[in-house]
Amino acid sequence: MRLYRTDEILHREFPFTDDKRLRNIYMSYFPRLLRFAIEYVDTKEDAENIIQDIFTYILENRHTICINTTLNAWLYAIVRNKCIDFLRHRLAVEEGNRHLQDSFVLEQKIKLQSLQFFDDELTEDTDATIQAIYDAIESLPERCRRIFKMNKLEGKKYSRIAEELGISEKTVDNQMGTALAKLREKLKRRPPK
Q1: Which of 19, 26, 185, 191 is most exposed, with the fewest beta carbons within 10 Å of its own?
Q2: Model pTM greater than 0.85?
Q3: Cα separations (Å) of 107 from 79, 91, 93, 100?
Q4: Number of Cβ within a 10 Å radius of residue 126
Q5: Distance, CA of 12 to CA of 9 (rounded, Å)
Q6: Residue 3, CB half-sphere, CA atoms under 13 Å: how many?
Q7: DSSP 114-158
Q8: Gap between the Cα atoms of 13 and 117, Å rounded
Q9: How does pLDDT run across 103-139, given as a tens digit for each residue?
Q10: How far apart are CA 85 and CA 107, in angstroms?
């Protein structure tokens, strides 16, 4: 009789259909996989969710799962891949939030500058500030200006703008980023009163 390491025995002799062995694998690997995942996703809660999702997948698909390596290597590879997916998703969300935050910050700066130049009698300074804002917007490249106005003045969402102009949402997002950066730079040069 040939002797195997524990994970090789499970790999070669264990179809995931045996509930007792599946429970033993869960109890044995969960803490190790959790420590591994925490190193990459930073929070214990996120790591626990990833590991729970993996074992739920195994449980739901146990009759069709076929592995061609050791159980240990297979489980760690799945955790690694799930952590990569999690981090990519989180990065995309953060990037989207940053663009929204940039937009919000620009709006607040425009409002702040308007208030800083505010004169109770609406003097020429106020008109000059408003004109500076409009001039800054009008100085944007045509496509960039059009997309900015559709979003900020007409209140259209990126998806709607992309649909109307026949471009991708990513292009709209990039153009808005460009517009915000250029406006921020132009308005920064204008000295507050």
Answers
A1: 191
A2: no
A3: 42, 24, 21, 11
A4: 16
A5: 5
A6: 0
A7: HHHT--TT--HHHHHHHHHHHHHHHTS-HHHHHHHHHHHTS---H
A8: 78
A9: 777 776 676 665 555 544 444 555 666 777 788 888 9
A10: 33
